[in-house]
UniProtKB/TrEMBL annotation:
This is Neutral metalloproteinase. The keyword Protease applies. The keyword Metal-binding applies. GO terms for cellular component: extracellular region. The active site is at 165, 271 (proton donor). It comes from Actinomycetospora succinea. Belongs to the peptidase M4 family. Residues 90-172 form the Peptidase M4 domain. Extracellular zinc metalloprotease. Keywords: Hydrolase, Metal-binding, Metalloprotease, Protease, Secreted, Zinc. Its cofactor is Zn(2+).
């Protein structure tokens, strides 16, 4: 069993929670300590939770329970089931809707039957702990904290956070990407990708219209931060002493952050270096154009299914390029956009070059190069005809 691929996945990275420990505000420090302590305990339980993660098919039916500020899920009370109407508790309804939207996206767009592909039940728990600053997926359920009200608000209010966490479950049941170093950063990136894509799908936004921010709704209005992460511009989501200074995410391989493979260092910086493949997806989606859940989403999803636990950035880049060719044709505009996207983050597709990609497009009658080929031939023919006429004129002048 791949325990490292079945970790407790939290939306807040350790470096942000650790930064809050240095706050001058005693209450902020207290809630940060409580959240970090709970997160460490949950990581220690991940083996037992993973072993028990097998559930009977349920068609993705939802159940939302209220923890009443307890951290013992067994004591939670069921507040809303799949066929129940909305209730008075806004957190219950938001979690119910977020789980449903994510489930419907995977079913309608990617033809996937719930998280595990076999109709896995979707259980959500709200009001977890007191002022708990996180939301997490633990291989069996989705759990939401209320936030401390000072830095973070209710975590059920962000659809991209919900889709991000549930996508960790999809990754567990497909590639099983190990949660450390590059495979772990890729694991986080895939969750950010589909977290953003689900949000765009819900809002009906094109890739150009989207903000490409992750978790912009989890901060309270008083915090000077746009979001947790920016896929469009990694490293720019925030810049405030409260969160430890400037967003540390890199946007290319030359800025890759090497960290120890420990829990304290985010398992080798999985929430930090995910900025590199995040930027690649943004570039691919905007390069292809239209809706991110169309060609770009299909390419990334098929690449995820074709990946393995130790897949790194290079291997995933090569797989997306191959899948783009299989789905849309060798040298197609989609494949060219994927190629350019990885180049944009300083990852070269193995065995391919810009010239070879353009030649493939021309030889297969696809892409802009091939589309303009007849007019370019006519243009060259006209130039040759004019040059021939000029040469004949010079010959006559000499005689």
């Amino acid at each position: 069993m791949n325990i490292r691929g079945r970790s407790v996945n939290c939306i807040l990275p350790p470096h942000i929670l650790n930064a809050l420990l240095d706050s001058d505000d005693r209450e902020i420090r207290r809630t940060a300590i409580a959240t970090l302590t709970s997160t460490s305990r949950l990581r220690g339980e991940r083996t037992a939770r993973s072993i028990a993660a097998v559930a009977a098919p349920a068609g993705g039916r939802r159940t939302i329970s209220d923890c009443h500020q307890s951290k013992v899920l067994a004591q939670a009370t069921v507040e809303r089931g799949e066929d129940d109407p909305a209730v008075a508790d806004g957190s219950v309804n938001a979690a119910f809707d977020g789980l449903g939207t994510t489930r419907d996206f995977y079913a309608q767009v990617l033809q996937r039957n719930s998280i595990d592909g076999r109709g896995m039940r979707l259980n959500g728990y709200v009001h977890y702990g007191q002022a708990f600053n996180n939301a997490f997926w633990d291989s069996r359920e989705m759990v939401f904290g209320d936030g401390d009200g000072r830095v973070f608000s209710d975590f059920t209010g962000a659809l991209d956070v919900i889709a991000h966490e549930l996508t960790h479950g999809v990754t567990e049941h497909t590639a099983g990407l190990e949660y450390h170093n590059q495979s772990g950063a890729l694991n986080e990136s895939v969750s950010d990708v589909f977290g953003s894509v689900v949000k765009q799908w819900k809002l009906g936004q094109t890739a150009e219209q989207a903000d490409w921010l992750i978790g912009e709704k989890i901060f309270t209005p008083g915090v000077d931060a746009d979001a947790l992460r920016s896929m469009k511009a990694p490293g720019t989501a925030y810049d405030t002493p409260l969160l430890g200074g400037k967003d540390p995410q890199p946007d290319r391989m030359s800025k890759f952050v090497n960290l120890p493979d420990t829990d304290e260092d985010d398992n080798g910086g999985v929430h930090i270096n995910s900025g590199i493949p995040n930027k690649a997806f943004y570039l691919a989606a905007t390069g292809i154009g239209g809706n991110s859940w169309g060609a770009p989403g299909a390419i990334w999803y098929e690449a995820l299914k074709a990946s393995s636990p130790d897949t790194d950035f290079q291997a995933f880049a090569d797989t997306t390029f191959a899948k783009a060719g299989q789905l849309f044709g060798t040298g197609s505009p989609e494949q060219q956009a994927v190629f350019a996207a990885w180049q944009g983050v300083e990852i070269k597709i193995s065995g391919a070059s810009p010239l070879s990609v353009r030649l493939s497009a021309s030889s297969n009658g696809t892409g802009a190069a091939a589309a303009s080929l007849p007019s370019r031939v006519d243009e060259l023919a006209g130039q040759i005809k004019a040059l021939t006429k000029e040469v004949n004129g010079l010959r006559k002048a000499r005689t």
